[in-house]
Each structure stands twice: as structure tokens, then as C-alpha cells.
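Sequence in, structure out.
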Amino acid sequence: MTAYNREKYIEEAIESVLASTLKDFELIIVDDSSADKTVEIANSYAKKDKRVKIFINEHNLGDYPNRNKAASYAQSKYIKYLDSDDIMYPHCLEVMVHCMEKFPAAGFGLSAKTDPSKPYPVFLTSREAYIENFYGYGHFDRAPGSSIIKKEAFDKVGGFSGERMIGDTDLWYRLAMNYPMVKFVPDLYWSRLHEGQESQSSYAQQQYEQLRKMVMDRYFKNPACPLNDKERKDFLAGISRKKRRTFFINTVKKVLRSNNH
């Protein structure tokens, strides 16, 4: 759990982890030089429960570098992120670990949209994960809270890139290029929306799609990409058609709104 000025939410986040049906875990909280009572609240839990461990950065590292910092302290087989403003449901850890243990070859797992053709969990090869990502599942658009990652796999691919806003998407592409993936049921945690999040910022609204496309191009051009040339061209063509359709729909909406004024 990484934290920065989250005194308003971190207590609920910690409580949700401690309420987990799976009891064998370590809760690593890395504070990124908060100026509020975040550390004070976290320390109150560390005093009561030895599974809670607090680390404080001397200088602010930023979102993804701090996630890497947190991972460097982990001693367990798996890394599971929960943001300090989110809430984990009691069965979350137990379900994720069970799914990963069922498929030892997998390097990571992600919550996914429901698959009408088969029950979860489902094992995906690197190629299958890439194909499903572009055929409606959007695996690589998941937030860190949707994931569980083998510590060994995380370290081998180098963790988060550190790129602003898009570091999680980049990591899923990279992990899936190197390891099979497990997809499991959605809604294992609750992701809170509030004004203090970068995802709600003007920067995110303006830059996210461009950054997302940049990451996709990066891995499409990578020689280790599990897709063949035809598949890559087909996906790029499909994305272009979707963008044109979205642009048309948005334009029509603007015209309709202007006509109503």
C-alpha cells in the first residue's frame, strides 16, 4: 500500500486488509512524505498488528516509483497492491491467491470482465492475453488494485516503468509478453473516485489516450510481441475505426446540444 496525504481514507483501506479471510500476509505501507496525519494513522495499526509494516520516504518519489519502493520491501511470494484510498473486500486476497496457485506457470493475474464461455479462473498464454486485450476484455487497462503479481516475475521484468499515468498499463504489457496470465472474477475491491486522484486531473483527461497509444505502439514494435504482423495490423485498424466512430458520436452529441440551446 502506497500513500501520500491520505489521512481521510487510509484507515478504511487498512481495516479492509486486516478483515481479509486470508490471514497470512504482510501489509507494507510506504508513505511518500505526507504532510498530513497519514503516517500517524498507519503507525497506530502497526503498533497493534505485527503484520503491518510502515516505511517513510525521505523525499517524495511519485506514484509508480513509490510502488516499486514498496515492492522492494516485500518478502512474500506474491505482491498485491491496494491504494490507500480504496477498499479490499474480505475474500479478495483469498480468491486471488487461490487462482494463482491453481496455475503455477502464470506470472500475474488480473480481474477481468465476465467470460460467458467458461467459469473463472482461466489461464491465458501470452498470445491469448494480448488477443483478448484487444477483443473487448481490455486486460491491460486494469488498475494496480485489480492485480496480483508473483514477486519473482515483478523483479525480473523490472517493475513499474515510472511513467506518469500509464505505468500500470505498461507493466501489464510487459508481464504478459514474458509470462502467462490468469484472469479471475471482477469486483474484488472497491476503487474510490475523488477529486484528489490524478486520474481525475485535467492532465489525465487530456493525455491518457495518447499515453495509452504510445505504450501499445512500444510493445507492438517489440520483437518479443506474441502477436504476428497480421494480428497487429488488424488490431490497429480496429482501433482506428473505433476512434472514428467515437469522434462521429461525440460530434453528433455536440451538434444536438448546440441545437437545444
